[in-house]
Amino acid sequence: MRGRLPQQSERIDGYESPIHRALWERILTMGAPRWWASFWLILCLWLSLLLLMATGLRYAGLPLVAWALGQGLMVLLTAWDPQWDTLMGAHLKRLYKSYYDAG
After folding, report:
1. Count of alpha carbons within 13 Å of 27, Cβ hemisphere only?
2. Domain that holds residue 65
């Protein structure tokens, strides 16, 4: 059959290849961006260890409660805007320019 197009399931070598999901999807740890989730967990565990050594078991669980609340907040922010950390970083570094000057 002349002029027949290949079917969708057929792949033509050199023209089409599968793309790994990590190239087009954000890598998340427990629903939050990987770097921030890891940093927050390590910081809270370190604070918990410091409080454990200073006060015993009395206040050692407080940083773990703070971790759960912070992780939940990061998950909510990621659900609202997947690039929230990039946006906040650009905002703090003042990379935005005022394109809409009113005056």
Report:
1. 8
2. 28-81
